[in-house]
Design a protein that fits this description.
Elements (H helix, E strand, L loop, with lengths): L11 E3 L11 H4 L2 H8 L38 H8 L6 H9 L1 H4 L13 H11 L22 E3 L27 H7 L14 E3 H11 L1 H4 L35 H11 L10 H14 L9 E3 L47 H4 L15
Antiparallel strand pairs: 1-2, 3-4
Helix pairs in contact: 2-6, 4-6, 8-11, 10-11
This protein binds heme C (2 copies).
One heme C (HEC) binds next to helix 3 and helix 4.
Length: 369
């Protein structure tokens, strides 16, 4: 039988369990709010509160005053039952000892939990659990059957009667993690928008950029952005976009310079991301503009203030595409989403015949080098 204040059903029983504790008891010493967080460690197996059910472990309503291993309907280990038969009753003290070292108090019991090493954690979780027990007094006085415990009634609108039962842990339903610190958010929040929003203070010239680039980037991307072996090409390719094999570089293809700054700062040099200063990234970005003939002066200095003054050549070819207005799609009408084929659906070709599946011996198209 559950004895909780249930706001939904009007007048209810008020359980004054905490007052049954002596001033020195663990529950009185503990902090129930902290205990709720400690209880997250138990939640995989135990529930408590109005909807509590037996799960991996027995529910912990009315656990104080309960004889160990005695809850109807839960299959305890024979060791736990035996401990109860030998007189173990859950009180602040026995619970404290059990939680400190479960296998020492009830040898070979089935609770797969190492225990709570910190005394404060144990006191806190006991304080958290106590209000869910009607009889949480001393072992000597607590009746084994909690349903015999005295309860006081109170009117449901009494604020002090707020049931602690269904509160969710501080950090979401599962009680995981913690709020991110301002420093952590700042370190993560580094995106830069095409309109320049997010650009940091700082500046850098083409000449400085050439130096930083030569030291950090040229091994892979080539002295002039031409790309060593098969590393990405960063410059050139202008007017190749309509060719069969277009060369897509920052100069020929990318829409926004903000992506260059953002990407280099975020991800390069490959293997040492975030190792460059903001000034270095400005300088490199200026140098990449220079390599792509977008600025021609070696003394050109790029900063937040003139960042938008040098748009990339292909920007105008990137258009908002809402599918309704865009010419390629406009006029096609509503796309068919169901029953689009007259008659029964047939298999017209096998993937193996279409040659999209690599050959079993791995030499076919699609094999990854
Ligand atoms: C991995 C699952 C698991 C975790 C985690 C766990 N327990 Fe248990 N607990 C059990 C099982 C299973 C039993 C029954 C043991 C038996 O029958 O031998 C049990 C028994 C108990 C009992 C005895 C109840 C009774 O009716 O005799 C108490 C009290 C208890 N656990 C409290 C806790 C507390 C408090 C925590 C968290 C600090 C916790 N447990 C963590 C699985 C767990
Ligand atoms: C060890 C080799 C290496 C070094 C050094 C290196 N990169 Fe890269 N870079 C890469 C690889 C690999 C990619 C492709 C990454 C991907 O697609 O996920 C890349 C991609 C890029 C791109 C995007 C190219 C595109 O068109 O998609 C830019 C811009 C770039 N790097 C700039 C730099 C700059 C600036 C530096 C020096 C600060 C640098 N890289 C250092 C290997 C390197």
């Amino acid at each position: 039988m559950l004895k909780y204040l249930n706001r939904a059903t009007g007048p209810a029983l008020l359980v004054l369990a905490a007052s049954a504790h002596g001033a020195t008891s663990a529950a009185a010493a503990g902090d129930p709010a902290a205990g709720e967080r400690v209880f997250n460690k138990c939640k995989a197996c135990h529930t408590v509160g109005p909807d509590a059910k037996n799960r991996v472990g027995p529910h912990l309503n009315d656990v104080f005053g309960r004889t160990a291993g005695s809850l109807d309907g839960f299959k305890y280990s024979s060791e736990m039952v035996k401990a109860g038969e030998e007189g173990l009753v859950w009180t602040d003290e026995t619970m404290d000892a059990f939680l400190a070292a479960p296998k020492k108090v009830v040898q070979k019991n089935r609770m797969a939990f190492a225990g709570l090493r910190k005394e404060a954690d144990r006191a806190d979780v006991i304080a958290f659990l106590a209000p869910y027990s009607v009889a949480s007094g001393d072992a000597a006085t607590a009746p084994a059957d909690a349903s015999e415990a005295p309860v006081q009634t109170a009117s449901a609108d009494s604020e002090s009667a707020a049931a602690p039962a269904t509160a969710i842990g501080d950090h979401g339903v599962f009680g995981l993690g913690r709020p991110a610190l301002p420093d952590e958010i700042a370190a993560w929040d580094i995106d830069i928008r095409p309109d320049g929003k997010g650009l940091p203070e700082g500046s850098g010239t083409v000449l400085v950029g050439e130096e930083v680039y030569t030291d950090n980037c040229a091994v892979c991307h080539g002295d002039f952005g031409e790309g060593v072996d098969r590393w990405p090409v960063l410059a050139g390719g202008l007017d190749t976009l309509t060719e069969e094999r277009p060369e897509k570089t920052i100069g020929s293809y990318w829409p926004y310079l903000s992506t260059v700054y953002d990407y280099v700062r975020r991800a390069m040099p490959f293997g040492a991301a975030r190792s460059l200063s903001d000034d270095d990234v400005y300088a490199i970005t200026a140098y990449i503009l220079y390599l792509n003939d977008i600025v021609l002066d070696e003394d050109f200095e790029l900063s937040k203030d003139n960042f938008l003054a040098h748009p990339l050549p292909n920007q105008a070819n990137f258009i908002p595409d809402d599918r309704d207005q865009e010419p390629h799609y406009a006029g096609e009408g509503e796309p068919c989403m169901s029953d689009c084929t007259d008659g029964p659906v047939e298999i017209t070709m096998r993937a193996a015949v279409l040659d999209v599946t690599p050959d079993a011996d791995g030499d076919g198209a699609g094999a990854i080098e």
